[in-house]
Protein backbone atom coordinates (compact mmCIF):
# COMPACT_ATOMS: atom_id res chain seq x y z
CA UNK A 1 0.00 0.00 0.00
CA UNK A 2 2.84 2.35 0.77
CA UNK A 3 3.96 4.11 -2.40
CA UNK A 4 7.38 2.91 -3.50
CA UNK A 5 10.04 5.45 -2.69
CA UNK A 6 13.63 5.42 -1.54
CA UNK A 7 12.94 8.23 0.93
CA UNK A 8 11.79 7.30 4.42
CA UNK A 9 9.22 10.10 4.19
CA UNK A 10 5.61 9.25 3.37
CA UNK A 11 2.85 11.66 4.30
CA UNK A 12 -0.85 11.52 3.85
CA UNK A 13 -3.51 14.12 3.33
CA UNK A 14 -6.75 12.69 4.65
CA UNK A 15 -9.82 14.72 3.76
CA UNK A 16 -13.33 13.54 4.50
CA UNK A 17 -15.19 13.85 1.20
CA UNK A 18 -18.13 15.55 2.82
CA UNK A 19 -17.57 18.97 1.28
CA UNK A 20 -15.24 21.09 -0.82
CA UNK A 21 -11.67 21.84 0.22
CA UNK A 22 -11.52 25.13 2.06
CA UNK A 23 -8.44 27.27 2.59
CA UNK A 24 -7.63 25.60 5.92
CA UNK A 25 -7.49 22.04 4.67
CA UNK A 26 -5.93 23.08 1.37
CA UNK A 27 -3.11 24.52 3.46
CA UNK A 28 -2.71 21.20 5.27
CA UNK A 29 -2.57 19.37 1.94
CA UNK A 30 -0.03 21.78 0.55
CA UNK A 31 2.23 21.69 3.58
CA UNK A 32 2.18 17.89 3.55
CA UNK A 33 3.06 17.81 -0.13
CA UNK A 34 5.83 20.40 0.14
CA UNK A 35 7.32 18.61 3.11
CA UNK A 36 7.31 15.25 1.35
CA UNK A 37 8.60 16.55 -1.99
CA UNK A 38 11.39 18.47 -0.32
CA UNK A 39 12.49 15.22 1.30
CA UNK A 40 12.08 13.23 -1.92
CA UNK A 41 9.23 11.36 -0.25
CA UNK A 42 5.75 10.25 -1.23
CA UNK A 43 2.26 11.66 -0.78
CA UNK A 44 -0.81 9.55 -0.15
CA UNK A 45 -4.26 10.99 -0.73
CA UNK A 46 -6.49 9.14 1.67
CA UNK A 47 -10.22 9.68 1.66
CA UNK A 48 -11.61 9.35 5.17
CA UNK A 49 -15.01 8.23 3.95
CA UNK A 50 -16.20 5.99 6.76
CA UNK A 51 -19.21 8.27 7.19
CA UNK A 52 -21.24 6.70 4.40
CA UNK A 53 -24.13 9.10 4.77
CA UNK A 54 -22.15 12.31 4.41
CA UNK A 55 -19.36 11.14 2.08
CA UNK A 56 -20.01 11.81 -1.59
CA UNK A 57 -18.35 10.67 -4.77
CA UNK A 58 -18.64 14.11 -6.35
CA UNK A 59 -16.66 15.58 -3.46
CA UNK A 60 -13.93 13.00 -4.05
CA UNK A 61 -13.67 14.23 -7.62
CA UNK A 62 -13.86 17.89 -6.57
CA UNK A 63 -11.07 17.40 -4.02
CA UNK A 64 -8.86 15.77 -6.66
CA UNK A 65 -9.48 18.63 -9.04
CA UNK A 66 -8.89 21.31 -6.43
CA UNK A 67 -5.61 19.74 -5.32
CA UNK A 68 -4.44 19.44 -8.91
CA UNK A 69 -5.37 23.08 -9.51
CA UNK A 70 -3.35 24.12 -6.48
CA UNK A 71 -0.35 22.18 -7.77
CA UNK A 72 -0.43 19.41 -5.17
CA UNK A 73 0.46 16.01 -6.59
CA UNK A 74 0.09 12.61 -4.96
CA UNK A 75 1.46 9.15 -5.61
CA UNK A 76 -1.32 6.90 -4.40
CA UNK A 77 -4.89 7.00 -3.19
CA UNK A 78 -6.74 5.03 -0.54
CA UNK A 79 -10.35 4.90 0.60
CA UNK A 80 -11.21 3.99 4.16
CA UNK A 81 -14.58 2.67 3.00
CA UNK A 82 -12.70 -0.17 1.25
CA UNK A 83 -10.94 -1.25 4.46
CA UNK A 84 -13.86 -2.06 6.74
CA UNK A 85 -12.73 -5.69 7.16
CA UNK A 86 -9.28 -4.63 8.27
CA UNK A 87 -10.72 -2.27 10.91
CA UNK A 88 -13.21 -4.91 12.07
CA UNK A 89 -10.29 -7.29 12.64
CA UNK A 90 -8.53 -4.72 14.81
CA UNK A 91 -11.74 -3.99 16.72
CA UNK A 92 -12.11 -7.72 17.44
CA UNK A 93 -8.52 -7.90 18.59
CA UNK A 94 -8.90 -4.96 20.96
CA UNK A 95 -12.13 -6.42 22.35
CA UNK A 96 -10.45 -9.80 22.89
CA UNK A 97 -7.60 -8.05 24.72
CA UNK A 98 -10.08 -6.23 26.95
CA UNK A 99 -8.92 -2.91 25.54
CA UNK A 100 -12.25 -2.03 24.04
CA UNK A 101 -15.06 -2.15 26.54
CA UNK A 102 -18.79 -1.81 26.13
CA UNK A 103 -20.59 1.24 27.49
CA UNK A 104 -24.34 1.82 27.50
CA UNK A 105 -24.85 5.42 28.61
CA UNK A 106 -27.05 7.61 26.50
CA UNK A 107 -25.73 11.08 25.55
CA UNK A 108 -28.09 12.55 28.15
CA UNK A 109 -26.74 10.25 30.88
CA UNK A 110 -23.19 11.18 29.96
CA UNK A 111 -24.04 14.85 30.05
CA UNK A 112 -25.60 14.40 33.50
CA UNK A 113 -22.43 12.69 34.74
CA UNK A 114 -20.28 15.49 33.42
CA UNK A 115 -22.46 18.15 35.03
CA UNK A 116 -22.26 16.40 38.37
CA UNK A 117 -18.46 16.07 38.12
CA UNK A 118 -18.12 19.75 37.33
CA UNK A 119 -20.42 20.68 40.21
CA UNK A 120 -18.12 18.69 42.51
CA UNK A 121 -15.11 20.50 41.12
CA UNK A 122 -13.84 17.41 39.32
CA UNK A 123 -12.74 17.23 35.66
CA UNK A 124 -15.44 15.76 33.40
CA UNK A 125 -13.59 12.53 32.61
CA UNK A 126 -15.52 9.37 31.81
CA UNK A 127 -15.88 7.33 35.02
CA UNK A 128 -15.34 3.92 33.35
CA UNK A 129 -18.69 2.67 34.57
CA UNK A 130 -18.76 0.41 31.50
CA UNK A 131 -15.65 -1.42 32.73
CA UNK A 132 -17.42 -2.43 35.91
CA UNK A 133 -20.39 -4.05 34.17
CA UNK A 134 -20.82 -7.79 34.63
CA UNK A 135 -22.14 -10.12 31.97
CA UNK A 136 -25.52 -10.02 33.70
CA UNK A 137 -25.54 -6.20 33.74
CA UNK A 138 -24.87 -6.15 30.05
CA UNK A 139 -27.54 -8.74 29.29
CA UNK A 140 -30.07 -6.71 31.28
CA UNK A 141 -29.14 -3.45 29.49
CA UNK A 142 -29.35 -5.13 26.11
CA UNK A 143 -32.71 -6.65 27.02
CA UNK A 144 -33.84 -3.03 27.56
CA UNK A 145 -32.97 -2.47 23.91
CA UNK A 146 -29.68 -0.68 24.55
CA UNK A 147 -26.77 -1.24 22.19
CA UNK A 148 -23.20 -0.66 23.41
CA UNK A 149 -20.69 1.85 22.15
CA UNK A 150 -17.08 0.88 22.70
CA UNK A 151 -14.36 2.80 24.48
CA UNK A 152 -10.60 2.32 24.42
CA UNK A 153 -9.17 1.74 27.89
CA UNK A 154 -6.25 4.16 28.03
CA UNK A 155 -3.17 3.42 30.07
CA UNK A 156 -2.53 6.23 32.54
CA UNK A 157 0.84 7.25 31.15
CA UNK A 158 2.37 10.53 30.14
CA UNK A 159 2.15 10.44 26.34
CA UNK A 160 5.04 12.34 24.80
CA UNK A 161 6.10 13.34 21.35
CA UNK A 162 8.45 15.81 19.71
CA UNK A 163 6.26 17.90 17.49
CA UNK A 164 8.02 19.38 14.45
CA UNK A 165 6.14 22.63 14.98
CA UNK A 166 5.16 22.72 18.65
CA UNK A 167 8.31 21.17 20.09
CA UNK A 168 8.12 18.68 22.98
CA UNK A 169 4.47 17.85 23.80
CA UNK A 170 2.94 15.67 26.44
CA UNK A 171 -0.51 14.64 27.62
CA UNK A 172 -1.30 12.74 30.77
CA UNK A 173 -3.65 10.01 29.61
CA UNK A 174 -5.08 9.87 33.13
CA UNK A 175 -6.62 13.27 32.36
CA UNK A 176 -8.35 12.05 29.21
CA UNK A 177 -11.68 10.25 28.88
CA UNK A 178 -11.37 6.81 27.37
CA UNK A 179 -12.24 7.63 23.74
CA UNK A 180 -15.20 6.04 21.99
CA UNK A 181 -13.85 4.14 18.99
CA UNK A 182 -17.04 2.36 17.90
CA UNK A 183 -20.50 3.92 17.97
CA UNK A 184 -23.65 2.09 19.10
CA UNK A 185 -24.64 1.56 15.47
CA UNK A 186 -21.32 -0.19 14.84
CA UNK A 187 -19.78 2.63 12.80
CA UNK A 188 -16.25 3.74 13.60
CA UNK A 189 -15.10 7.11 14.74
CA UNK A 190 -12.10 8.52 12.94
CA UNK A 191 -9.50 7.58 15.59
CA UNK A 192 -8.97 3.89 14.91
CA UNK A 193 -9.11 3.76 11.09
CA UNK A 194 -6.67 6.64 10.97
CA UNK A 195 -4.12 4.89 13.20
CA UNK A 196 -4.50 1.58 11.38
CA UNK A 197 -4.09 3.25 8.00
CA UNK A 198 -1.09 5.28 9.10
CA UNK A 199 0.54 2.04 10.27
CA UNK A 200 -0.44 -0.11 7.27
CA UNK A 201 0.44 2.58 4.74
CA UNK A 202 3.87 3.35 6.15
CA UNK A 203 3.10 6.95 7.06
CA UNK A 204 6.23 8.48 8.52
CA UNK A 205 4.91 11.98 9.25
CA UNK A 206 1.44 13.18 10.18
CA UNK A 207 1.05 16.88 9.49
CA UNK A 208 -2.30 18.38 10.40
CA UNK A 209 -4.03 21.21 12.23
CA UNK A 210 -3.57 21.79 15.94
CA UNK A 211 -7.24 20.94 16.48
CA UNK A 212 -6.00 17.33 16.40
CA UNK A 213 -3.47 17.62 19.22
CA UNK A 214 -5.53 15.65 21.76
CA UNK A 215 -6.36 13.03 19.12
CA UNK A 216 -2.64 12.67 18.62
CA UNK A 217 -2.06 11.70 22.24
CA UNK A 218 -4.74 9.00 22.01
CA UNK A 219 -3.56 7.84 18.60
CA UNK A 220 0.05 7.51 19.73
CA UNK A 221 -1.03 5.23 22.57
CA UNK A 222 -3.36 3.25 20.30
CA UNK A 223 -0.57 2.80 17.75
CA UNK A 224 1.72 1.39 20.44
CA UNK A 225 -1.04 -0.91 21.71
CA UNK A 226 -1.20 -2.27 18.17
CA UNK A 227 2.58 -2.81 18.22
CA UNK A 228 3.20 0.04 15.80
CA UNK A 229 5.75 2.85 15.85
CA UNK A 230 3.96 6.20 15.94
CA UNK A 231 4.74 8.57 13.08
CA UNK A 232 6.40 11.92 13.65
CA UNK A 233 3.78 14.61 14.21
CA UNK A 234 3.55 18.25 13.24
CA UNK A 235 0.57 20.38 14.22
CA UNK A 236 0.03 23.62 12.37
CA UNK A 237 -1.57 26.57 14.10
CA UNK A 238 -5.01 27.19 12.67
CA UNK A 239 -5.63 30.19 10.45
CA UNK A 240 -7.58 33.10 11.85
CA UNK A 241 -9.25 36.11 10.28
CA UNK A 242 -7.38 39.39 10.12
CA UNK A 243 -9.28 40.27 13.31
CA UNK A 244 -8.09 37.10 15.10
CA UNK A 245 -10.31 34.60 16.90
CA UNK A 246 -10.59 31.80 14.35
CA UNK A 247 -11.78 31.92 10.80
CA UNK A 248 -15.19 33.52 10.42
CA UNK A 249 -17.95 31.49 8.90
CA UNK A 250 -17.46 33.29 5.61
CA UNK A 251 -13.68 32.78 5.39
CA UNK A 252 -13.80 29.37 7.08
CA UNK A 253 -15.93 28.09 4.26
CA UNK A 254 -13.98 29.92 1.58
CA UNK A 255 -13.23 27.07 -0.80
CA UNK A 256 -10.42 26.63 -3.28
CA UNK A 257 -13.15 26.56 -5.92
CA UNK A 258 -14.19 30.08 -4.80
CA UNK A 259 -10.62 31.29 -5.22
CA UNK A 260 -10.33 29.66 -8.63
CA UNK A 261 -13.65 31.16 -9.74
CA UNK A 262 -12.40 34.52 -8.51
CA UNK A 263 -9.64 34.20 -11.13
CA UNK A 264 -6.74 33.95 -8.68
CA UNK A 265 -3.51 32.23 -9.66
CA UNK A 266 -3.03 28.84 -8.00
CA UNK A 267 0.60 29.73 -7.42
CA UNK A 268 -0.41 32.88 -5.51
CA UNK A 269 -2.76 30.82 -3.35
CA UNK A 270 -0.02 28.23 -2.80
CA UNK A 271 2.63 30.84 -2.01
CA UNK A 272 0.40 32.42 0.62
CA UNK A 273 -0.84 29.19 2.19
CA UNK A 274 2.64 27.66 2.32
CA UNK A 275 4.11 30.63 4.14
CA UNK A 276 1.33 31.84 6.41
CA UNK A 277 2.46 31.07 9.92
CA UNK A 278 6.14 30.76 8.99
CA UNK A 279 9.02 33.13 9.49
CA UNK A 280 9.42 33.29 5.68
CA UNK A 281 8.34 36.29 3.62
CA UNK A 282 5.08 35.98 1.77
CA UNK A 283 6.33 36.72 -1.73
CA UNK A 284 5.55 35.64 -5.29
CA UNK A 285 7.31 32.49 -6.46
CA UNK A 286 8.05 31.45 -10.02
CA UNK A 287 6.96 27.82 -9.67
CA UNK A 288 5.91 25.06 -7.30
CA UNK A 289 9.49 23.81 -7.51
CA UNK A 290 10.70 27.16 -6.16
CA UNK A 291 8.17 27.00 -3.33
CA UNK A 292 9.32 23.48 -2.56
CA UNK A 293 12.99 24.45 -2.56
CA UNK A 294 12.37 27.18 0.01
CA UNK A 295 10.08 25.09 2.21
CA UNK A 296 11.14 24.22 5.75
CA UNK A 297 8.58 22.98 8.26
CA UNK A 298 10.67 24.17 11.17
CA UNK A 299 9.93 27.72 10.02
CA UNK A 300 6.33 27.33 11.20
CA UNK A 301 5.67 28.91 14.56
CA UNK A 302 3.00 28.58 17.20
CA UNK A 303 1.44 32.01 16.67
CA UNK A 304 -1.90 31.96 14.87
CA UNK A 305 -1.44 33.17 11.31
CA UNK A 306 -3.93 35.63 9.91
CA UNK A 307 -5.57 34.87 6.62
CA UNK A 308 -6.59 38.05 4.84
CA UNK A 309 -8.08 37.73 1.33
CA UNK A 310 -6.68 41.20 0.56
CA UNK A 311 -3.15 39.79 1.01
CA UNK A 312 -4.01 37.12 -1.51
CA UNK A 313 -5.25 39.66 -4.04
CA UNK A 314 -2.08 41.71 -3.62
CA UNK A 315 0.14 38.68 -3.92
CA UNK A 316 -1.76 37.60 -7.02
CA UNK A 317 -1.08 40.95 -8.68
CA UNK A 318 2.62 40.85 -7.72
CA UNK A 319 2.90 37.34 -9.10
CA UNK A 320 1.37 38.39 -12.42
CA UNK A 321 3.59 41.45 -12.67
CA UNK A 322 6.65 39.21 -12.57
CA UNK A 323 5.28 36.26 -14.56
CA UNK A 324 7.02 35.47 -17.84
CA UNK A 325 5.12 34.98 -21.05
CA UNK A 326 5.78 31.25 -21.29
CA UNK A 327 4.07 30.70 -17.93
CA UNK A 328 1.13 32.93 -18.81
CA UNK A 329 0.63 31.70 -22.36
CA UNK A 330 -1.56 28.61 -21.83
CA UNK A 331 -3.94 30.60 -19.64
CA UNK A 332 -3.95 33.54 -22.05
CA UNK A 333 -4.75 31.18 -24.90
CA UNK A 334 -7.69 29.78 -22.93
CA UNK A 335 -8.92 33.35 -22.51
CA UNK A 336 -8.30 34.03 -26.21
CA UNK A 337 -6.04 36.82 -25.02
CA UNK A 338 -2.56 35.73 -26.03
CA UNK A 339 -0.98 38.62 -27.84
CA UNK A 340 2.57 37.30 -27.75
CA UNK A 341 5.53 38.24 -25.55
CA UNK A 342 5.46 41.97 -26.39
CA UNK A 343 1.78 42.18 -25.49
CA UNK A 344 2.34 40.34 -22.22
CA UNK A 345 5.31 42.54 -21.33
CA UNK A 346 3.17 45.62 -22.04
CA UNK A 347 0.14 44.65 -19.97
CA UNK A 348 1.21 42.34 -17.13
CA UNK A 349 2.05 45.25 -14.81
CA UNK A 350 -1.55 46.40 -15.02
CA UNK A 351 -3.21 43.14 -14.06
CA UNK A 352 -4.84 42.23 -10.77
CA UNK A 353 -6.28 39.04 -12.24
CA UNK A 354 -4.97 37.25 -15.30
CA UNK A 355 -8.42 37.52 -16.86
CA UNK A 356 -7.98 41.30 -16.96
CA UNK A 357 -5.61 40.63 -19.88
CA UNK A 358 -8.64 40.03 -22.10
CA UNK A 359 -9.61 43.66 -21.82
CA UNK A 360 -6.13 44.83 -22.82
CA UNK A 361 -6.09 42.30 -25.62
CA UNK A 362 -9.15 44.02 -27.05
CA UNK A 363 -7.41 47.37 -26.61
CA UNK A 364 -4.34 46.16 -28.47
CA UNK A 365 -5.93 44.07 -31.18
CA UNK A 366 -9.71 44.25 -31.05
CA UNK A 367 -12.55 46.64 -30.99
CA UNK A 368 -13.00 49.33 -28.37
CA UNK A 369 -15.02 52.51 -28.01
CA UNK A 370 -12.60 55.42 -28.46
CA UNK A 371 -13.38 58.38 -26.24
CA UNK A 372 -13.00 62.13 -26.47
CA UNK A 373 -14.26 63.92 -23.38
CA UNK A 374 -13.91 67.59 -24.35
CA UNK A 375 -14.92 69.35 -27.57
CA UNK A 376 -11.62 71.21 -27.76
CA UNK A 377 -9.78 67.89 -27.92
CA UNK A 378 -11.42 66.91 -31.23
CA UNK A 379 -9.21 69.25 -33.24
CA UNK A 380 -6.16 68.10 -31.32
CA UNK A 381 -6.94 64.49 -32.18
CA UNK A 382 -7.20 65.41 -35.86
CA UNK A 383 -3.79 67.04 -35.64
CA UNK A 384 -2.50 63.94 -33.89
CA UNK A 385 -3.93 61.78 -36.64
CA UNK A 386 -2.07 63.74 -39.32
CA UNK A 387 1.16 63.54 -37.31
CA UNK A 388 1.08 59.75 -36.85
CA UNK A 389 4.41 58.38 -38.07
CA UNK A 390 4.56 55.82 -40.86
CA UNK A 391 5.19 52.21 -39.88
CA UNK A 392 7.25 50.22 -38.93
CA UNK A 393 6.64 51.18 -35.31
CA UNK A 394 8.67 50.37 -32.27
CA UNK A 395 9.03 51.41 -28.64
CA UNK A 396 10.30 54.87 -29.73
CA UNK A 397 7.31 55.69 -31.94
CA UNK A 398 5.20 57.05 -29.07
CA UNK A 399 7.98 59.44 -28.01
CA UNK A 400 8.61 60.64 -31.57
CA UNK A 401 4.90 61.20 -32.18
CA UNK A 402 4.08 62.97 -28.93
CA UNK A 403 7.27 65.05 -29.17
CA UNK A 404 6.16 66.34 -32.55
CA UNK A 405 2.65 67.02 -31.21
CA UNK A 406 4.00 68.92 -28.25
CA UNK A 407 6.00 71.15 -30.52
CA UNK A 408 3.07 71.66 -32.90
CA UNK A 409 0.32 72.32 -30.34
CA UNK A 410 2.08 73.56 -27.21
CA UNK A 411 0.22 70.91 -25.21
CA UNK A 412 2.11 69.01 -22.56
CA UNK A 413 1.60 66.63 -19.63
CA UNK A 414 -1.93 65.43 -19.07
CA UNK A 415 -3.35 67.80 -21.69
CA UNK A 416 -1.17 66.12 -24.26
CA UNK A 417 -1.38 62.50 -23.17
CA UNK A 418 -4.88 62.01 -21.79
CA UNK A 419 -6.83 62.75 -24.99
CA UNK A 420 -4.52 60.34 -26.83
CA UNK A 421 -4.95 57.64 -24.22
CA UNK A 422 -8.72 58.05 -24.19
CA UNK A 423 -8.89 57.92 -27.95
CA UNK A 424 -6.53 54.98 -28.38
CA UNK A 425 -7.66 52.82 -25.46
CA UNK A 426 -11.04 54.15 -24.38
CA UNK A 427 -9.70 54.32 -20.82
CA UNK A 428 -8.12 56.87 -18.53
CA UNK A 429 -5.52 54.45 -17.22
CA UNK A 430 -3.60 51.50 -18.47
CA UNK A 431 -0.31 50.14 -19.72
CA UNK A 432 2.48 52.36 -20.95
CA UNK A 433 1.43 53.70 -24.33
CA UNK A 434 4.96 53.44 -25.72
CA UNK A 435 4.59 49.65 -25.37
CA UNK A 436 0.94 49.55 -26.39
CA UNK A 437 1.09 51.75 -29.50
CA UNK A 438 3.13 49.37 -31.69
CA UNK A 439 0.67 46.61 -30.80
CA UNK A 440 -2.33 48.75 -31.73
CA UNK A 441 -0.65 49.57 -35.03
CA UNK A 442 -1.21 52.43 -37.42
CA UNK A 443 -4.48 51.32 -39.06
CA UNK A 444 -6.30 50.85 -35.75
CA UNK A 445 -4.78 54.02 -34.31
CA UNK A 446 -5.98 56.10 -37.30
CA UNK A 447 -9.45 54.64 -37.01
CA UNK A 448 -9.66 55.27 -33.26
CA UNK A 449 -8.39 58.85 -33.53
CA UNK A 450 -11.01 59.51 -36.25
CA UNK A 451 -13.85 58.02 -34.27
CA UNK A 452 -12.83 59.76 -31.06
CA UNK A 453 -12.64 63.12 -32.85
CA UNK A 454 -16.13 62.63 -34.25
CA UNK A 455 -17.30 61.78 -30.72
CA UNK A 456 -15.67 64.99 -29.50
CA UNK A 457 -17.56 66.97 -32.11
CA UNK A 458 -20.69 65.33 -30.79
CA UNK A 459 -19.91 66.72 -27.35
CA UNK A 460 -19.69 70.18 -28.84
CA UNK A 461 -23.05 70.04 -30.62
CA UNK A 462 -24.96 67.94 -28.10
CA UNK A 463 -27.59 69.89 -26.17
CA UNK A 464 -26.77 70.25 -22.50
CA UNK A 465 -28.51 67.70 -20.38
CA UNK A 466 -30.51 69.43 -17.69
N1 LIG B 1 -10.28 13.18 8.07
C1 LIG B 1 -9.64 13.87 9.14
C2 LIG B 1 -9.96 15.34 9.04
O1 LIG B 1 -10.27 15.79 7.97
C3 LIG B 1 -8.15 13.63 9.05
C4 LIG B 1 -7.38 14.20 10.13
C5 LIG B 1 -5.94 13.71 10.05
O2 LIG B 1 -5.19 14.26 9.29
O3 LIG B 1 -5.61 12.76 10.77
O4 LIG B 1 -9.94 16.03 10.03
Briefly characterize the structure.
With 466 residues, this protein is mainly α.
Give a written overview of the molecule.
The protein has 466 residues and is mainly alpha-helical. It has 5 domains: 10-79 and 191-239, 3-Layer(aba) Sandwich (Rossmann fold); 86-182, Glutamyl-tRNA Synthetase, domain 3 (Alpha-Beta Complex), CATH 3.90.800.10; 247-321, Glutamyl-trna Synthetase, Domain 2 (Glutamyl-tRNA Synthetase, domain 2, Orthogonal Bundle); 325-364, no CATH class; 367-456, Arc Repressor Mutant, subunit A (Orthogonal Bundle), CATH 1.10.10. 48% of the residues lie in helices and 11% in strands. It contains 19 helices and 12 strands. The chain has helices spanning 23-38, 57-70, 84-96, 107-119, 135-143, 191-200, 213-225, 249-252, 256-261, 266-275, 288-293, 309-321, 325-334, 340-347, 357-365, 375-387, 397-409, 413-425, 433-461, and strands at 10-13, 42-47, 76-79, 100-103, 149-152, 158-163, 167-172, 180-182, 205-209, 232-236, 240-241, 306-307. The strands form 5 sheets. The protein has a 3-stranded parallel sheet with strand order 1-2-3, with helices on one face. A 3-stranded antiparallel sheet has the order 4-5-8. Strands 6-7 form a two-stranded antiparallel ribbon. It is elongated, with a radius of gyration of 32 Å. The structure holds glutamic acid.
